[in-house]
Amino acid sequence: MSGSLNRPVRRRAFVLGGAAVAGTAALGGPLATAASAAAFGWSDDGSNYVVDTGASLVFKVSRTNGDLTSLVYKGTEYQGYGGKNSHVESGLGTSTVTITQSGTTILIAVAYGTLKHYYAARSGENNIYLWTNKADASVSATRYIVRVKAGLFLNDEPDSYTYAPTVIESADVFAKSDGQTRSKHYAKRRVIDYSATGWTTGSVGLYIVRSNHEKASGGPFYRSLLRHQSTDGGGLYEILYYGENQTEAERFGLQGPYVIAFTDGGTPSSSLYPGTLTTAWADSLGISGYVAASGRGKVAGVGISGRDTAYAYTVGLANPAAQYWGPARSSDSYFSIGGVLPGTYTLTVFKGELAVHTASVTVTAGATTTLNTIAIASSNDPANATAIWRIGTWDGTPAGFKNADLMTYAHPSDVRAAAWTGNVVIGSGSETASFPAYIWKDVNSGLLVYFKLTAAQAAAAHTLRIGVTTAYANGRPQITVNSWVSSIPSPPTQPSTRSLTVGSYRGNNNTFTYSVPASAWLTDTSQYNVLKIDVVSGSGTTSYLSAGTSIDALDLLA
Prior knowledge:
With 558 residues, this protein is mainly beta. It has helices at residues 431-434, 455-458; strands spanning 41-44, 48-52, 57-62, 68-73, 76-77, 87-88, 96-102, 105-112, 115-122, 127-134, 142-149, 166-169, 173-175, 181-183, 196-200, 205-209, 227-230, 233-241, 253-263, 297-301, 304-305, 313-318, 323-327, 335-340, 343-351, 354-363, 368-371, 374-375, 387-392, 424-425, 438-440, 447-451, 462-472, 476-481, 484-485, 510-516, 529-536, 548-557.
């Protein structure tokens, strides 16, 4: 176990297999603190570069492959379990690793083929700043995992599978003896919902503060694993591209910084958070793909008209190279998105998670693109259509449906889940709460909705709509109204991997529309018409891995 180095600050660069990173950077920014000049520095133990931050943190990086091999905070080793280190993906293999010190910053650069990865330490801070530049698909995914020794933090949250010995799906979803399910996939939170993830004992906290995800894929509502804990140890993740439940093509380029942060038990300082963190001290470090604040622009909008003020609105920017987002202020819908790389983007306004407006916007380095009031067309929000009846709300999520909230942190088989079967009667007052959030071909296909029509309503044709948020194995709804049967709709584009069983309903929102002829309705207005919803597909397996779909809303238009 390493301790303090207790040596003067080094003023030279040591190089292994490549050129030193040049440049000098003065201490600055929101995290600048007084450093211990006698402690801050680095050494070479023959196998690792050893960095003392001059605070309470000493860490080691392998000279061979760029793994983080030791993470000592206040004398306690936190890194490692199962003989594994902390690293990009599952480890990079033999790499070119270099180290340099520029004033009060130490930078370790790792080059593995076309991928470059960086660790930076700042004098007097208990933080490690990380960047990852993935130039192509030669590395299958982009994640960083901090592997933490067992027993240092306690966790029996949904994303933990400690004491859950029964495997119920794909060797990564488990059931406890009480029937509750656990999995590293059950993060609960969307990217937009968190800035840091980690654990605390009350006196020590260990966190990863996420990056701004500008080169990630999936947008603000993407869900992926954040952490896990099992009998051999725990893991903290920064997921930049995972290949699971992805709705967009992979983006390449520099991601970061994201931060490994130790605290005295509290959450990390908000000055480390994406959108707040400033890194002028890194501008001259020579990080591949790095774009300083001066090379970025901003988009600001004075407001959004046509909103439903019962919902939160988010504005997103996306193109093949980058993505950004920001909230529209609830009071007046003003929004501002900063730190944007120059380029032309598709601007999308989301009501909840449902896209209700798109436009094109161009961002220029060093400038603010100011937008006049964005008007959402009434026809762009399906909730504005007059309906005879409606189940759920048109917001791009299954919120309000049976088991919807539970499914972000549990498997559908979890003992806490209400029965996935059960029919719905319009006018009962519990239509949405009784309707299941998900429908599977092999579990609850054939759901029935009972409703009555007036004579005038029964004399006309009507459009029935079913909105979905994702689908597994091309599952999509086919409907039967009394004796009338719809055609089988074509499957929309959706992620090809698991979704409904790993805590995510996020795919591509799609609305299926069915033109139901007047001849389909019952003419006796005292009788219930019966809508049957089946999930159809030629793909999938059985049970909760049969073809399925997540419901946003369904309605019968007037």
